Amino acid sequence: MKSYRGSCHCSAIGFEYRTSLPPAEWSIRACQCAFCRAHDALSASDPSGELRFVAEKPDRLQRYRFALRTADFLLCRECGVYIGATIQIGDSRRGIINTHALIDTPADLAATEPMSYDGEDVGERVGRRDERWTPVSAVPS
Ligand SMILES: [Zn+2]
Protein backbone atom coordinates (compact mmCIF):
# COMPACT_ATOMS: atom_id res chain seq x y z
CA MET A 1 0.00 0.00 0.00
CA LYS A 2 1.10 3.56 -0.63
CA SER A 3 0.71 6.31 1.90
CA TYR A 4 -0.89 9.70 1.19
CA ARG A 5 -0.82 12.49 3.74
CA GLY A 6 -3.22 15.32 4.12
CA SER A 7 -3.67 18.24 6.45
CA CYS A 8 -5.60 21.39 7.09
CA HIS A 9 -4.05 24.68 5.96
CA CYS A 10 -2.36 25.49 9.29
CA SER A 11 -1.15 21.85 9.74
CA ALA A 12 -2.93 21.45 13.10
CA ILE A 13 -4.88 18.37 11.99
CA GLY A 14 -4.39 15.86 9.22
CA PHE A 15 -4.52 12.27 8.06
CA GLU A 16 -2.51 9.40 6.66
CA TYR A 17 -4.41 7.43 4.02
CA ARG A 18 -3.02 4.10 2.86
CA THR A 19 -4.33 2.33 -0.23
CA SER A 20 -3.02 -0.09 -2.84
CA LEU A 21 -5.25 1.52 -5.48
CA PRO A 22 -3.38 3.73 -7.96
CA PRO A 23 -4.76 7.31 -7.87
CA ALA A 24 -6.20 6.90 -11.38
CA GLU A 25 -8.50 4.20 -9.96
CA TRP A 26 -9.64 6.03 -6.85
CA SER A 27 -13.37 6.57 -6.53
CA ILE A 28 -13.67 10.33 -6.03
CA ARG A 29 -17.13 11.54 -5.15
CA ALA A 30 -18.36 15.10 -5.34
CA CYS A 31 -21.19 14.85 -2.83
CA GLN A 32 -23.88 17.39 -3.70
CA CYS A 33 -25.06 18.08 -0.14
CA ALA A 34 -24.91 21.71 1.04
CA PHE A 35 -21.93 21.05 3.36
CA CYS A 36 -19.78 19.37 0.70
CA ARG A 37 -20.68 21.96 -1.95
CA ALA A 38 -19.79 24.81 0.41
CA HIS A 39 -16.37 23.23 1.05
CA ASP A 40 -15.94 22.05 -2.56
CA ALA A 41 -15.19 18.70 -0.90
CA LEU A 42 -14.18 15.60 -2.84
CA SER A 43 -14.45 12.32 -0.95
CA ALA A 44 -12.27 9.25 -1.41
CA SER A 45 -12.12 5.96 0.44
CA ASP A 46 -10.98 2.36 0.03
CA PRO A 47 -12.60 -0.40 2.11
CA SER A 48 -9.34 -2.38 1.76
CA GLY A 49 -7.18 0.59 2.80
CA GLU A 50 -6.28 2.19 6.13
CA LEU A 51 -6.93 5.66 7.44
CA ARG A 52 -5.51 7.42 10.47
CA PHE A 53 -6.42 10.93 11.56
CA VAL A 54 -3.79 12.88 13.46
CA ALA A 55 -3.73 16.13 15.39
CA GLU A 56 -0.59 18.15 15.99
CA LYS A 57 -2.83 20.54 17.92
CA PRO A 58 -5.82 18.52 19.18
CA ASP A 59 -7.57 21.62 20.51
CA ARG A 60 -8.07 22.76 16.92
CA LEU A 61 -10.03 19.63 15.94
CA GLN A 62 -13.69 20.45 15.47
CA ARG A 63 -16.29 17.72 14.91
CA TYR A 64 -19.43 18.69 13.06
CA ARG A 65 -22.62 16.63 12.73
CA PHE A 66 -25.60 17.53 10.59
CA ALA A 67 -28.60 16.07 8.75
CA LEU A 68 -28.90 12.42 9.90
CA ARG A 69 -26.05 13.05 12.40
CA THR A 70 -24.41 9.69 11.80
CA ALA A 71 -20.84 10.90 11.08
CA ASP A 72 -18.33 13.37 12.48
CA PHE A 73 -17.03 15.79 9.85
CA LEU A 74 -13.56 16.94 10.93
CA LEU A 75 -12.62 20.58 10.51
CA CYS A 76 -9.86 22.83 11.80
CA ARG A 77 -11.04 25.50 14.26
CA GLU A 78 -8.20 27.79 13.24
CA CYS A 79 -8.06 27.68 9.43
CA GLY A 80 -11.49 26.23 8.68
CA VAL A 81 -10.36 23.41 6.38
CA TYR A 82 -12.46 20.25 6.20
CA ILE A 83 -10.14 17.21 6.06
CA GLY A 84 -12.47 14.18 6.22
CA ALA A 85 -15.15 12.37 8.18
CA THR A 86 -15.53 9.34 10.42
CA ILE A 87 -18.39 7.12 11.46
CA GLN A 88 -18.60 4.58 14.30
CA ILE A 89 -20.45 1.41 13.25
CA GLY A 90 -20.61 -1.12 16.06
CA ASP A 91 -17.01 -1.94 16.99
CA SER A 92 -15.51 -0.49 13.84
CA ARG A 93 -14.73 3.03 12.73
CA ARG A 94 -14.66 4.03 9.08
CA GLY A 95 -13.79 7.22 7.30
CA ILE A 96 -13.26 9.25 4.17
CA ILE A 97 -10.70 11.86 3.21
CA ASN A 98 -11.27 15.14 1.45
CA THR A 99 -8.86 14.84 -1.48
CA HIS A 100 -8.57 18.64 -1.57
CA ALA A 101 -6.72 18.34 1.77
CA LEU A 102 -3.99 16.07 0.32
CA ILE A 103 -0.54 17.65 0.74
CA ASP A 104 0.74 16.32 -2.59
CA THR A 105 -2.17 15.75 -4.94
CA PRO A 106 -1.33 12.87 -7.29
CA ALA A 107 -1.12 14.20 -10.86
CA ASP A 108 -3.13 11.31 -12.29
CA LEU A 109 -6.04 11.45 -9.85
CA ALA A 110 -9.25 9.87 -11.17
CA ALA A 111 -12.10 12.00 -12.50
CA THR A 112 -14.74 13.06 -10.00
CA GLU A 113 -18.25 11.73 -9.95
CA PRO A 114 -21.17 13.84 -8.67
CA MET A 115 -23.21 12.00 -6.03
CA SER A 116 -26.49 12.63 -4.27
CA TYR A 117 -27.45 10.64 -1.19
CA ASP A 118 -30.56 12.69 -0.39
CA GLY A 119 -33.00 9.77 -0.47
CA GLU A 120 -31.16 7.62 2.07
CA ASP A 121 -32.55 6.79 5.50
CA VAL A 122 -30.23 6.17 8.45
CA GLY A 123 -29.92 2.42 7.74
CA GLU A 124 -29.05 2.94 4.09
CA ARG A 125 -26.55 5.68 4.91
CA VAL A 126 -24.74 3.66 7.56
CA GLY A 127 -24.80 0.54 5.35
CA ARG A 128 -23.26 2.38 2.39
CA ARG A 129 -20.49 3.81 4.56
CA ASP A 130 -19.86 0.40 6.12
CA GLU A 131 -19.27 -1.00 2.61
CA ARG A 132 -17.36 1.85 0.98
CA TRP A 133 -15.52 3.86 3.63
CA THR A 134 -11.97 3.10 4.79
CA PRO A 135 -11.27 1.35 8.11
CA VAL A 136 -9.97 3.98 10.55
CA SER A 137 -7.22 3.03 13.01
CA ALA A 138 -7.05 6.28 14.96
CA VAL A 139 -8.86 9.54 15.55
CA PRO A 140 -7.61 12.09 18.08
CA SER A 141 -9.99 12.43 21.04
ZN1 LIG B 1 -5.90 24.37 10.37
Protein model, in words:
- By secondary structure, this protein is mostly beta strands.
- The protein has a single domain (2-138), classed as Metal Binding Protein, Guanine Nucleotide Exchange Factor, Chain A.
- It contains 2 helices and 11 strands, in the order βββαβββββββαβ.
- It has helices at residues 34-39, 122-132, and strands at residues 2-7, 13-19, 28-31, 43-44, 50-55, 61-64, 72-76, 82-89, 92-98, 112-115, 134-138.
- Strands 1, 2, 3, 4, 5, 6, 7, 8, 9, 10 and 11 form an 11-stranded mixed β-sheet that branches.
- The two termini are 26 Å apart.
- The mean pLDDT is 96.
- The structure holds zinc ion (ZN).
List keywords for this structure.
mainly beta; 12% helix; 141 residues; eleven-stranded mixed beta sheet; binds zinc ion; Metal Binding Protein, Guanine Nucleotide Exchange Factor, Chain A
> Given the structure, what is the number of helices?
2
Which ranges are low-confidence, i.e. pLDDT below 50, for 5 or more consecutive residues? Answer: none
SS-based class: mainly beta
Please state the CA-atom Rg, rounded to the nearest Å.
14 Å
Shape field: globular
CATH fold name, please?
Answer: Metal Binding Protein, Guanine Nucleotide Exchange Factor, Chain A
**Oligomer classification:** single chain
Q: Characterize the biggest β-sheet.
A: 11 strands, mixed
Small-molecule components bound: zinc ion
> In CATH's first tier, which class applies?
Mainly Beta
How many β-strands, per DSSP? 11
